[in-house]
Design brief:
The chain has 192 residues and is of the alpha+beta class. Helix content is 32%, strand content 21%. The relative contact order is 0.11.
């Protein structure tokens, strides 16, 4: 039996207790990493503390489509390994802030997927527990935006007791059919 099924069988109190333990474990694992990170659906930002007074020329930063390496020249790497997902190399950058923080911005290739971790060998977070910030319709790709707008329209129509977009399409098709076939009598027809 999987842990997912076990979780579904727990009471509300047991779920909350397990979630609290999992959250504390996850926070401890993330705090132990040599960097802090946050993400949105389309991007990941990583902050790596470096010794005060560090200059850009002192850093060895390599960003590749599926790999990341960060360190000070001539020293052991601060972080190095395979990224958990591919990035858009041309839109990913790094900068040094106040000579003490390396800021790395990675643009996700798949902008519709949460990352479990930065490097594949680092501890994972539970992406099911992520609370995304409210997004604007303009942030969505065309197809997703159209689907959301249709759902919003249909919901408004239902609340007002009016036909949904699908029902309106059916009614329009029926009107066209009736206009094309005036010889047919639709007065007793029941159409759902």
């Amino acid at each position: 039996m999987s842990s997912e099924n076990d979780y579904d069988k727990l009471t509300k109190e047991e779920r909350e207790a397990r979630d609290k333990v999992d959250r504390e474990r996850e926070e401890a694992e993330q705090a132990a990493l040599p960097y802090k990170w946050k993400q949105e659906l389309g991007e990941v930002d990583i902050t790596v503390p470096v010794p005060k007074g560090t200059r850009a020329r002192d850093l060895a930063v390599i960003i590749q489509k599926k790999k990341l390496s960060v360190g000070l020249k001539g020293q052991e790497k601060i972080m190095e390994g395979e990224l958990c997902r591919e990035i858009k190399l041309e839109d990913s950058t790094w900068t040094l802030e106040d000579q003490q923080s390396l800021l790395i911005h990675l643009e996700k290739l798949n902008k519709q997927q949460w990352w479990d971790n930065i490097l594949t060998h680092h501890p994972k977070i539970d992406t099911r527990k992520i609370q995304p910030e409210n997004s604007k319709l303009s942030d969505l790709d065309g197809e997703t935006r159209g689907m959301v707008e249709k759902m919003m329209f249909d919901n408004q129509q239902k609340q007002m007791g009016k036909p949904t977009s699908d029902e309106l399409k059916k009614m329009e098709a029926l009107k066209k059919f009736q206009a094309a076939h005036p010889e047919l009598d639709f007065s007793n027809a029941k159409i759902s």
